[in-house]
Write a structure and sequence with these properties.
Length: 561
Amino acid sequence: MGRLFRKKKINTIVAEGGDEVHGGTGLHRVLNVRDLTFLGIAAVIGAGIFSTIGSAAFHGGPGVSLLFVITAVTCGFSALCYAEFASRVPVSGSAYTYAYVSFGELVAWIIGWALILEYAIGNIVVAISWSSYFNNLLQGLNIHLPYWLTTNLTTANEALAAVNEQLAKGAAATADMQAIIDGYNAAPALGSSKLFLNLPAFLIVALITALAYIGMKESKKSANAMVIFKIAVIIFVIVMGFFYVNTDNWNPFMPNGFTGVLQGVSAVFYAYIGFDAISTTAEECKDPQRDLPKGMMNALVICTILYILIALVLTGMVNYSELKVDDPLAYVFDNLGLKWIGYIISISAVVATTSVLLVFQLGQPRIWMTMSRDGLLPKRFSKVHPKYKTPAFATIITGFLVGIPAMFLPSSIMTDLTSIGTLFAFVLVCLGVLLLPKLQAGTQGKFKLPYVNGQFILPLLVAAFIFLFRDRVAASITNLFHENHQEVLFLIFILIAVVIAALTFIRKYSLIPVLGALSCMYLMIEIPVNSWFWFFVWMGIGLVIYFFYGYRKSKLANEQA
């Protein structure tokens, strides 16, 4: 057990991240607070605001704006914990490195493996979304790519089945329905099946990977330009949209109750993932201990304000029931006959998703680079390009890991998987902060998490939560052996919350990290159980790799030997 949970010292980690340790081949320190804020906005304002917000509004109605507030507060707690870690442990590696300091090697590996879900797997979804927006943009210019080159087999089969179902019911074939039929029939045969591949998704990943490969300086300039453009478009949409808001559409505010609002958890949280990607650039910051915390909080506040305003505008312009579409922002203006605004939005959506791809393609290689330095991955992952000063091999592997699946896989389940992986990382970072002050008191950073004694506040909050959900708790306990898995997860959460509340009362834990951990746990249990199954499968694969490679090759293991 001691070997599985061996921990790294903060001073050792910081020294290992220095340029002098790597023979002058460290990363370029070129990022300031503004750059970090822009990178955070680049990661957060993307597919969420242009796509998944429509699905969340369909379930929650105008009340989805409250869900953005809840999610922002949850992310805010986590961001404060990230900021403390980033200030104390200013190296690339994000939550993986923080877990190595707080919990030990096995937990660090688990969280590093979970971060692959957030960055690499999440980017597959973003690439597929980018392809959809880009294809719509081309069609607006009367350029039509072959149908079989713009989607995957699963999505094509589902689209054809939906069309056939409508036709079987006697519906008249529309131009869009006929296009799906003709496109499917025109696809090349591949044995008894058809060949479909999402070529635009692969190409954009290849281009972004090339940009990430040639340097952070070039990447930050591109990200900053894209962020300025998409924020300008979003503010324009908010201002224009308010002139067409019908306040009757905000009534009822929560048409499906709070349960309906919570159905959008995965979609809304997916819109927020990525602000933690800022922490992966620690070794490229001019003053990481000062700038990383500021960059994270700035990005989170700006994005939250924009999300809430967009949610209110969308649900005010049309009835919430109309918003279950792939491009809700363009849809509401097309409904008003303002197609030119929809066209601008489509351009902005392409730019926005491109910036998300860029930040995530920057983040993943840097986590792998750090894991490689620790011996948990082969040494090639930590090689820094002598000219471009980037983790070259890790960047190329990330490109293949994202680009190839993006051509062939559907995006549906990956959104939920990405959210689980991210929330899991957030939980461990929040709990890790509680251990951090006890580790090395002499390693104070320039940002310290405010201490709020949770001894009495947290037990009262947990008691109030149980009281508000008393009917659900009672029903879940009464029907324990006949309940669905979602309610079992809910009961497990209640049990964990009670235990943490008791420990907080006894040990006087700081309120902010504990609330952050519990908030993230609650959002996790609202994600569909099917996604949990695949999450455990993913974790199982990761543990096999660790015990066959990382456990034996670990740098700490060799030092101990």
